[in-house]
Amino acid sequence: MNAELAAVIDRARFLLLDFDGPVCKVFANHSAPQVAAMLCRLLVDLGVALPPGLLDESDPLAVLRWSATLNRPAIVRRIDDALRTAELDAVTVAEPTPYAREVIVTAHQAQRGIAIVSNNSADAVTQYLIARQLNAYINPVIGRPHAHPAGMKPNPAPVLAAICELHADPEDCVLIGDSPTDIEAAQAVGVPTIGYANKPRKYHSLSRSDAIIGSMADVVAALTGRRVQGGRPASHEGGSRVVRRAGSRQHETGAT
Asked: How confident is the model over 22-39, as pLDDT tens digits?
């Protein structure tokens, strides 16, 4: 087992999980580019002239962020509402992240508090957790603030909200996320971070994390102190594990 990852997990009394990535792939079976295109069509229907680049945007959250630049709150609300509806549809067929359930259940059994901190709508997150019978393990669920894209990560406000509801101190938490915005939001308030690099190209963008994993199985192993049977080790460039801690990078080979 990786000693650095184990140390981060051992210190954490509370796990803060990003949703899209560490828990599930929200748009695995409900195309994110199509949702982004739908939001763009709605903007046009509302009389908004779109910049050419936005028509090629594949990330629905990016379209929502752009809508806020119009300084027209009613339009931002319409876009956020439409995105929430699409997310509610998407989570019914979302793809669970391998070993995410094991992380949640194992952390609960170890008496660690668990929260979701997401840029997706809280309603969509909650619907997914209920459908997967995970809601009893997780509280609170912090989703994006309605019609206020500036309040989403990398703004640290959602992370602070989770810490407050958990009655925790930042140093007693760890946030697991798969994007630089997750890492930036957590580190802004002193929360240690684990980057979930489920694709090799993500290793570089998550290099500021305290630890980097390639599989949620690594977190299960760190929580239990033993390798997960059948778990895929974190991989990068032929199977090496990359961990960044205290400003340095260490490569380690071998199984989790």
From this structure: 999 999 999 999 999 999
Q: Which domain holds residue 67?
A: 32-91
pLDDT, tens digit (0-9, with 9 covering 90-100), for 185-220: 999 999 999 999 999 999 999 999 999 999 999 999
* 132 and 240 together in one domain: yes
Same domain, 80 and 179: no
Model pTM? 0.90
Q: What is the DSSP string of 44-84?
A: HHTTPPPPGGGGG---HHHHHHHHGGG--HHHHHHHHHHHH
Are residue 105 and residue 20 in the same domain, yes or no? yes
Residues 108 and 136 in one domain: yes
- Write out the DSSP string of 112-144: -EEEEE-SS-HHHHHHHHHHTT-GGG---EE-P
Q: Beta 248-252 vs 241-245: how paired, if at all?
A: antiparallel
